[in-house]
Amino acid sequence: MIENRPFLNMAAHLVLILGVCIVALPVWVAFVASTHGPTAFMSGTIPMWPGPDLVKNYSQMLGAGVSTSGTPPVGVMMFNSLIMALSIAIGKIVISVLSAFAVVYFRFPFRGLAFWCIFITLMLPVEVRIVPTFQVVADLGMLNSYAGLSIPLIASATATFLFRQVFLTIPDELTEAARIDGAGPMKFFRDILLPLSRTNIAALFVILFIYGWNQYLWPLLITTSSDYYTIVAGIKRMADAVDGLPQWHLVMATAMLAMIPPVIVVVAMQRLFVKGLVETEK
Amino acid sequence: MKRTIFSNQLLPWLLLAPQLIITFVFFLWPAAQAIRQSFLREDAFGTRTTFVGLENFVRLWNSPEYLNSLQVTAVFAISVTVLSMGLSLLLAIAVDRMIRSTRVYTTLLVWPYAVAPAVAGILWWFIFNPTIGIMPYLLGQIGYDWNHIQSKSDAMTLVVIASAWKQISYNFLFFLAGLQAIPASLREAAAIDGAGPVRRFFDITFPLLSPTTFFLLVVNIVYAMFDTFGVIDATTEGGPAQATNIMVYKVYFDGFVGQNLGSSAAQSVVLMALVLVLTVIQFRYVEKKVAY
Amino acid sequence: MASITLNNVGKIYAGGARAVGGVNIDIADGEFLVLVGPSGCGKSTLLRMVAGLESISEGEVRIGDRVVNEVEPADRDIAMVFQNYALYPHMSVRQNLAYGLKNRGTPKAEIERRVGIASDILQIGPFLDRKPRALSGGQRQRVAMGRAIVREPAAFLFDEPLSNLDAKLRVAMRLEIKELQKRLRTTSIYVTHDQLEAMTLADRLVVLNGGQIEQIGTPLEVYRRPASAFVASFIGSPAMNLIEASAVPHLPGTAHAGHVGIRPEDLTVTADGPIQMTVMAVEELGAQRLVHGRTGDARITITLPSDAPLSDDLRLSYRPNALHLFHKDTGKRVD
Description:
Chain B: Keywords: Cell inner membrane, Cell membrane, Membrane, Transmembrane, Transmembrane helix, Transport. Chain A has helices spanning 6-33, 54-63, 74-105, 111-120, 130-139, 146-150, 157-168, 172-180, 185-196, 198-213, 217-222, 231-241, 248-268, 270-280.
């Protein structure tokens, strides 16, 4: 800020408060809805202030679910989401950090080709090749399994590039010192490279956890058994299945529960989250 | 390039193996299948497949539904991009003026990034629900009869708002970073040269922000085209009357619900070509051309 | 402890460019050898070949009795101190020192003993549990040397270890390295581009230029009898005056001489000296001053005590045996 203009400062605050309200509006409405009983929606419009049934609604969803919807209790779906998000995040990090190590620290025939194979995955988002990929997973008998939920999504050009970038900034002298100190490639990887990439790994983990948790199309397709429903994919089934009169208070409670874990991750680890976002786009 | 390398020949392949195997099995092979399938046609019973050359593509080109989908996608992507980037830029400029409250406002604005597109869709669907939603009620007060289940434009508005809402945090963070990277001395120099706040924004800030803006333009178009499947599926399912049937949704719908594999594969190939172009643009031009 | 022998060593890069050629050096056990030359002269490449960080294209390198051309760096029984120290940033000083020993399976008690000795010698005991980024430049430099000492290697290899330090610290650390090396009597090869550092540290120094050895000798030999015009201009500060031989009349036996050299301190001011010098600038150094000027078309510099009288025109004389003559084609010394 250069000169002091109280009017502009006021305007900026106003814009921001309005912005924060708009951004928060849908979540507030959902939260309010999730605290009322089923009859609150009969009057025609949704109430704007929280009702008395918060504990009742949430404990019902977590424990029992809505029997008519064919979805399991939300607790089970959240557990599935957690497994999927963790497998995707950890899987992507592990295979990417290994490939980046191979590409940066070794010279071997067809290195360029290997690099291009990884690069090309950038251009093939799952939405684009959804039918044949589903076919492959079905042929491998991976439908309705945690492996089927996560493994097809863990190849990652972005993460590989990120680690490649990180490794390239690590001074050569460090590698040379380690060689003179008698560290072979895997020892160097474990003792030097991994510890030095710690914050990058953490930042990437935050982004990938959210990515994994928020998957929708993929779990929707490959889970037909309700045992493997994830919460983000399950919520739609719930809203659909309660035909005629959706039980809005319960659907919204589920929506809140689907948001809470990733939102907590973003807010609690804001610095890592921002670092991860910026780095993965480089 | 590293000066120091290890000389092992087998080890790098072992390290690459997991990534390469997954890439091959779940990316390259399916993509090749899509390309192959796009030149084939199955008969009605799925018993015989014949090679039909480019016929699937020709049919797409002559299909009013597909052309409609292209148009819908373009309108949708541009609307989402403009709405989300416009709002985010405004918010970022406001936060950039702040000294002490930057962090608080940032925290209050970034969390929607964590909300899944499908959940964002559900939330806005609820708000715009014609019978009990709050927005139709408010719009009714000023005489507008909202109904996204019947009105094409209402449906498009709904999916645009839901998709743009989710993307605000992302754009905001990058705009804010871009603004904070502009040296204060430049704006101070302009102020000494007699430029007021508005002039400074258009003469100094906005031009220097152009690399960020262009980068976000590409990212937002990619987001709107490929990552909004959840929003569409949770709200309009492409309707009413194809009004929100964007390309990614149509690929899925024709392939899984319609079981029209040849057409779906041809659509996949078109989409791959689009991603290819967008990726090339991102890598070629984002870094160099619009930078100062 | 060991001698090191370089036998006709050369380096040719993959593209065919030659970095070093025909280098023969015998380094005695316990000797402090300095490789000095301008940047790009191949001195670092040579050191890295001894370390095993660069492959050896020609000739052989022996450490002790063993040809080490194909031996891994870790197995050459050497330790290296890098220009940027190359301390592992995520490990404490203690872990940095111990890492190489641990990798060799040295028993814990022995590691502790050696780390203790090294930290006593270098006075880094108080910092043992700190991370490198919490240390000053000089302390990091000490830790880098500590990492070399604990290994008790046959040879120390130093790659411009002082060039990241400020001038004052550089002088202090230079002396420390020298004392340390005398105390441990470990064969050392030290690379620098700084001729003063080379002069002060070396038992013998090797002047390199364009990948070739220009001269090997003790600092005083090299200073007093530079083997070529290049060495003459590179070693010594202020640099030797080099004047085209044709500009100097009445020179004895100079048929092949291209340049005549004379050190600034070998020119003295006398009332009837044969050389006339027009003074152009004076730099005060405290105890003495540098006087720059010209004689004919040639620029020359002389050093004078700071209390010597100055005038715009000086007459200079010299002892005939203070002249150095260099061949007009090869630049080599002509005697």
